[in-house]
Amino acid sequence: MTMLPWVVFLPIIAGAAAFAIPSAANRARELTATLVTAATFVLSVFALAGGAGEPFSAVSLGFAPGFLVDLRMDVLNRFMVVFASLFGLLVTVFSVGYMQGRARLREYYPYLMITTGASNGALLADNWLLFIGFWGVVLVTLFLLTTIGAADAEPGKVKASAAKSMVILGGADLALIVGVGLIFALTGSLTISETSVAATSGMAVAAFILVLVGAMSKAGAMPLHSWIPDMAEAAPTSVSALLPASIDKLLGIYLLSRLVLNVFDVSLGLNVLLMIIGAVTIVAGVVMAMVQHDLRKLLSFHAVSQVGYMILGIGTGTAMGIAGGLFHMLNNAIYKGALFFTAGAVEKRAGTMDLAKLGGLGRMMPFTFATFGIAALAISGIPPFNGFVSKWMVYQGIVDAGIGRYWIFLVAAMFGSALTVASFVKIAHAVF
Predict the structure, then answer these.
(1) What's residue 4's pLDDT?
(2) Where do the structural domains in the chain lie, given as residue ranges?
(3) I want to staple 137 with a disulfide (CB 3.0 to 4.6 A). Which of 21, 87, 118, 127 is the partner?
């Protein structure tokens, strides 16, 4: 499919070229980033439409002798590419107003474009080495975007948060690389679509666990989550909306889904491990959210908690549970991005994210209040909003897996939803 290379390399090349735009030409930089991310989104929709009815579409580009760029769109990643491109566009448009007057805009917009392209590259890569390359680019841009810093963040906190993200995610990426090496040793192939491993031998289980570490850290599952709350306080809110709230979730859950559905024949024990990680992440994340006083940090712990539903659904190993986990991933990116956008609007208006210093903004910001309300109902799983549908599918997946054995996971998931409602009632009262 000829569209596939464009959704990857157009934003990357345009982002690299945008560094040449003079520092004073902010409008030109904003317009360039908006047009490029909009074009990337449109191209991703065309790529999706062009592959409708086909099991997969693939293209192989020869950039140099012996170096091929293999891209493949199938039923698992096609919607993820559209959503990653959409969030790149939405964050770029939001940034035009939110980042106005901030320093380092000459770097900021190029990083956004490169992040969008590299994310699409990781989602579409059909070669493990190519996947690792794009995956690593997203880590580098996350680090660089974090160093730009929030308007009220102390320089020391910004540096510490960026370093912490690099250490945790970089260490997890090393585990991912070792895991891929073991997969190659087991199969003799680096083509992702051709990889099939029975997770029965010690080496196969080790490979699964190592790659799982890379996926969990990117998605922000416990115990590899701590970089997300720190980053939420230190980085611009627009960056939090793009990466830990949206694209990093897409990438981490995509890799987990690819492992469970295609790469490994997962045993029951590994499924239970995933369900335990999911349940713990749900409950611990929302409990930590309820005791926060900074709006950004509170939302970041909810971003962690919601990952638990995705992992729990996929861990059930049932068709309904896996579909629910993937659907929740897309839903979460929508409403969590909206929540971070509303937080950015509150910060822009009030100049603070401290819940104790906020209040009464509902009358002054009715559109923001309404947007927050819709997103809060969705994340809480209240019908008829999208979060209810995907959570219900996860619940049904647990039941299908065997309620007699796994009732505790169902209780944990429902308890997490109840605490989420309480947490967002607290935010609404404190802010609006």
Answers:
(1) 87
(2) 268-431
(3) 118
